Amino acid sequence: xxxxxxxxxxxxxxxxxxxxxxxxxxxxxxxxxxxxxxxxxxxxxxxxxxxxxxxxxxxxxxxxxxxxxxxxxxxxxxxxxxxxxxxxxxxxxxxxxxxxxxxxxxxxxxxxxxxxxxxxxxxxxxxxxxxxxxxxxxxxxxxxxxxxxxxxxxxxxxxxxxxxxxxxxxxxxxxxxxxxxxxxxxxxxxxxxxxxxxxxxxxxxxxxxxxxxxxxxxxxxxxxxxxxxxxxxxxxxxxxxxxxxxxxxxxxxxxxxxxxxxxxxxxxxxxxxxxxxxxxxxxxxxxxxxxxxxxxxxxxxxxxxxxxxxxxxxxxxxxxxxxxxxxxxxxxxxxxxxxxxxxxxxxxxxxxxxxxxxxxxxxxxxxxxxxxxxxxxxxxxxxxxxxxxxxxxxxxxxxxxxxxxxxxxxxxxxxxxxxxxxxxxxxxxxxxxxxxxxxxxxxxxxxxxxxxxxxxxxxxxxxxxxxxxxxxxxxxxxxxxxxxxxxxxxxxxxxxxxxxxxxxxxxxxxxxxxxxxxxxxxxxxxxxxxxxxxxxxxxxxxxxxxxxxxxxxxxxxxxxxxxxxxxxxxxxxxxxxxxxxxxxxxxxxxxxxxxxxxxxxxxxxxxxxxxxxxxxxxxxxxxxxxxxxxxxxxxxxxxxxxxxxxxxxxxxxxxxxxxxxxxxxxxxxxxxxxxxxxxxxxxxxxxxxxxxxxxxxxxxxxxxxxxxxxxxxxxxxxxxxxxxxxxxxxxx
Length: 732
Ligand code: ADP
Ligand code: ZN
Ligand code: ZN
Prior knowledge:
This protein is of the alpha/beta class. The site of adenosine-5'-diphosphate has 16 residues, from helix 8.
C-alpha cells in the first residue's frame, strides 16, 4: 500500500500521454510552494506554451502568486476546464532538474515525509531555488581594448604599450597595475567597460601530492572493491590506516575510465588541505561544493558539473545532489558523522541519497569510517554491504590508552596529576598535545549561590552558559546571546557558583599552568568566521604546542607531531539519555584517540573518567570496535531501538502545552497500528512548548505509509507538527 501522492503516484502521472484538446490550452500538473504538508500534491493549470518537467513557473493560488515546478502534462478528462487557471509566468527556458534528480526528489519526499517543494529547494543551489524569480548572477567589470586616436602623455603612451597586451582584464586588477592611467585610458576611449559574469575561483595553496606506494592492506582493499560483484562497501579502517589514499586511487580508476566521482566529506572535514590534496591529484578536473561557499560560488560549481566540465566533485552533504551525467564511483568519508543528516525539512540522510544514486548510475558506493554507525555496521554484518577492513595503521602501532579513574585522583583545575605530567613531558620534547573538552564557553551553568536558581533561556527553557570573552550568557540551543549584569534575575544576589568548566575556562587554566606554551583553542566560538577553522589548524601545525577544543578536535586531523591526546571529561556524553549517547561517546573518544601517534613517534592517550569499566571505555582501551558493536547491539535490542527498528519522532508545538498535547494524543490514536511512545514534554523552541511522540516500526515502508496517512488525515489545527524520520537524536 502506498500513501497518497507518493513516489508511485508521481511515476504514474509522468507516464500519462500528452493530450492536447482542440479548443483548450494544454494542461499541466505543478507542485506548488506551500508550507502545509497536506498540500503536497500536484495542482492543474493551463498554459499556451510547451512546458517540460522540472521548469519553474508561477501560478495563482488563493489570490496569491506562488512559485511552482512543472510535474508534467495533465489529463483533462475528469476536470472542469473552465475552472482551470492559466500559469501566470514561466521562469525557466530549460528544466532545472533532470529526470534523475526529479525522481530523487520524489524518493526523498516519500521516504522522509516531506514536501516535494522542500526537496527541490534543498537539491538546488540557492541561486536556482524555486522561490527566486531569476538566478542572481553576479557581474563584474572587465576592461576591453578598443581603438583610439586621442593623444596620451609620453608616460601614458609607454605604459599603454605594456598594458594593452594584458587586456581583457578584470577592471579591479587592471586598476591596480595602471594606477591613475586607468582613468585616462577610459576617458580617452582606449578601453571600455564590459560586464562579465563573475566566475569565482577560490585560492588554493597547491601542494604537490603524489600517489604513494600502497601497503599490502590498502592494495587488497582496492582490489576487493574493484573486482567484487557487490555495489556497496563499508570500508572499516582504524584511525590512521590510510583510507584517504585508498579513496584517491579508487577515484583515479573511475576517472581514467571516463566516469565521474563524488567524494563526500563531513562538514568539518573539508579543509583547504584536503581540497589542495585532491586538486593536485586531479588538477582542474574538480568541483568543490560546501556550505561555507557563497551563493554565486555554489552556482558556478553546480554549472561546471551540469556542463560536464569536471570529473570529480568534492563536497559536504549538499554535494550529493550534483547533476552528474555519468557517475562511476561514490565515496563517503566518515560515514558516521552527524553532519550528513540535514536538520531541517527534508531531514534526509546523505547515505540514503548516495545509495539511491549509486543504484541509478550502476556505480559502486564506498562508505568509510574508523567508527562506523551502528546501522551501517549491522548491514555489513548481514552482508547487505560488503565489509572491507584496514586493521593496521600506516605507522604500525595504535596509541597506548590510559584510563585515569577520577574517583581516586586529586584534581588540579580539572586535571589529574598524571595528565599534567604527561603534558609537561611533551612540551619538553617539543611534541604536540591535543586536549578535548566537549563543552564550549566558560561556565556551562550559571547557578545562584543564594536562591539556587539556574539562569535559563526564555525561549528554550534550558540552562544558559557563561561566555567570558564577551561577558554574556549564551543559549547553546538557539544561539541567542543575553547581556549579563552578574545579578541573579530571581533574587538579586551577586554570587554564583563557579562549578564546571568549558573550553574558555580550560584555556585560561592551561595558560596559567604552562605559561610558555602556545595554546590554540578550537570550538564553535573561535571558528565562527569564514576560514577560521583552517587558520587555527595551520597555526597549530606551524607553531602550536597545545590544541584544546570541543569534539571538533577529534575529527580527521592528521598531525604527525601530536603524541598526546587528553580527554578531560570522557563520561560527559554517557549520562545523556538519548538512545545513541553511547555510540556518540564511543565515536568521539575513539576518534580523538586516533589523533595521537599517527607517524613515527608513538602516541599516548589519557582519558579522565569516573567509569573506567564502562563498555565504551573498555572498547576504546582495546581499540576494539567489534566489542563495542556487540555490546551496543544488545542494548539496542533490549530497548527496541535502531537498527532493530525504524523510528520517527513527531513534535507538536504551540504556545499552550495542553493544545499541543491534545493534538499529539489524537495523532497517537490515528497511528494505532504502530508502536507509539508518548506524548512527552520536551524542551521549548522559539518560545513554543513542545511535546513529542516516538514511533517505532520494524518495516520502514509501513512507517512511511502510516505517517503520510497521518499528514493527510489529521485535522488541521494551529498546532505545528514536524516529522523527523530516522532521527539521530531524539531531542533536536
Ligand atoms: P585515515 O583517514 O585512515 O585516518 P589517512 O588517510 O589520513 O588515515 O592516512 C594516515 C597518514 O598516513 C597520512 O598522513 C597519509 O598521508 C599516510 N599514508 C597513507 N597511506 C600511506 C602509504 N601507503 N605510505 C605511506 N604513508 C601513507
Ligand atoms: Zn538567586
Ligand atoms: Zn535558547
